[in-house]
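S.,

Sequence below, as promised.
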Amino acid sequence: MSTTTTARSGFVESIVGLMPRLEFRRIKSAEDFAAVFALRYRAYIANDLIEPNKTGMSVDSYDLLENCQIFGLYLDGELSASLRIHRVTPDTPWCPAIKSFKEYLGPELEEGNTFVDGSRFCVEPTRAPELSALPFLTVRFAYMASIHFASTYNISVVRSEHAAFYRRYYGFERWAGGVNLDWYKLPVDLYVGDMRTNRSRIDERLPFMQSNFEERLMLFTDDLPHQGIKSVKGLFGNLATNSVADHTPDSNLREWMSKAAIG
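The prediction came back faster than expected:
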């Protein structure tokens, strides 16, 4: 066995070993939303990616869209990372990537293709010991969503120094780049993964990305919470949790947005 294969196997096993300490949570309560927006802010400020604001939160109008879902990754019960996804279809053609890269994504929607757009990726800056594993586990939300919704593409808008992560491990391709966002200090590129060709490769190389149907159902629909089921076990001993809809977040989101600089 080569050194590369041995190292990769050891890395995969270390992440699999971490999974029983994890909870993958659909964010739906006002308290959880506030914690996620504060985490975004801490992570972006720590990396000098946004300008400071008085609220200590990072929130924008895309958080309010009907095709938006927000997730938190909890390690040992503490919020440690987050990702936002938009399920983009010809009937719901709204996501941050469309605004910046419409000339590339618009024609795909016209042909009937669909996307999961993963955005607002952030990791708690104080979780250094687990930092190498957390990005993989955070991207797992978008990967599971792409499977659950049978999306054609999994897309991400990233800065250039993170591009190798998406190319090497997930087979994403660069469709466009060098775009400046109005709230973000660095230019970004559009990377796209074709789920029709990439899924088997990802499942083989990164088995911890796999999930069972119950886990995906718990995270991406409200069927199980409405039946009184609020958590299920994933394939690797992790929890997937959800809750009955909390109707207060929308008003809180609008209030936070009115007070915070968008970003």
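Residues 3-255 form a domain with the Aminopeptidase fold (CATH 3.40.630.30).

Coffee later?
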